[in-house]
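Practice record 12: protein with 2-OXO-4-methylpentanoic acid.
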Amino acid sequence: MLDIRVEKTTSPKPIPDKDNPLVFGTIFTDHMFVMDYEKGKGWYDPRIVPYAPISLEPSAMVFHYGQEMFEGLKAYKTEDGRTLLFRPDKNIERANNSNRRLCIPEINPEDFLQAIKAVVKMDEAWIPTKEGTSLYIRPFVIATDPFLGVRPSDTYKFMIILSPVGAYYPEGLNPVKIWIEDEYVRAVKGGIGEAKTGGNYVASLASQVKAHDEGYSQVLWLDGVHRKYIEEVGAMNIFFKINGTVVTPKLNGSILPGVTRNSCIALCREWGLPVEERQISVDEILEAAKSGTMEEVWGTGTAAVISPVGALRFEDEVMQIQDGGIGPVSHKLYDTVTGIQTGKIDDFMDWTVEV
Ligand code: COI
């Protein structure tokens, strides 16, 4: 159990009103959680302090070799005033998996949850309640040793910041267009693809810029070895409904194990839909789109929730999906996941945790 020291802000910021569009990741609340680590001492000095810039040595290892881990989860306000987290245990488990892969010291899961709850409770008034909004929670750890040699750092900072958000994509629940990348790859088996760390996201930027310039929201990655099998989209996992079966790439060591991905698989199975986690080749996707058996495509992620895909482009071919609308399974998943998250429907999967 952490003994969290609290220093409240003396200059609270105005909380965004109902008409603020809450563009993803642009507004931050009044407080943040911070805890430090030193080799031999462990994690120490847990505190909630006013949200403010931090001071680091220019030689801090995170700036040079990217030793860092981050997570993303959300808090919601229910109509009866409760604050709910969605499956925080899954994010905490994944954070420690990332930490192990990146040689960052693990954080006790109970302390991690206590820290999330404490900082969310502190800035509870910032949780937006309009449809499609939530309080995005961003925990992260950075390596802080002032050292230019390559080795794991001996000191770290664990922080949690909070951001009231609306939809991740400007499209909202309207379908996004996705470009299947055939030039670069995001990750390879044995690399860091299944860890949540900045390196995987910076690797995606050149392709994302190229796709944006052509009017596409994101890229869909192919595997780094055969350059043939579907992996994931930059900020989401991907699902297809082909001929009545829900299909998603099997976790293979280079795909991020998404919490929303896991939740969608569980819900589809609960509803009796056949779900296959397996290798899916880009040829199979092209074939299904051409033959008319591709019924739906959607992405899943904490930030993106459920995001229908209306068009896929591979090389010079553009495949239109579901007449550019949202399909029935993606819609039902969206309603059910957000319904559970916001307490509007019964949490029959036992996924929410009250703050
Ligand atoms: C999330 O869905 O929480 C993510 O971390 C994706 C992101 C890079 C915005």
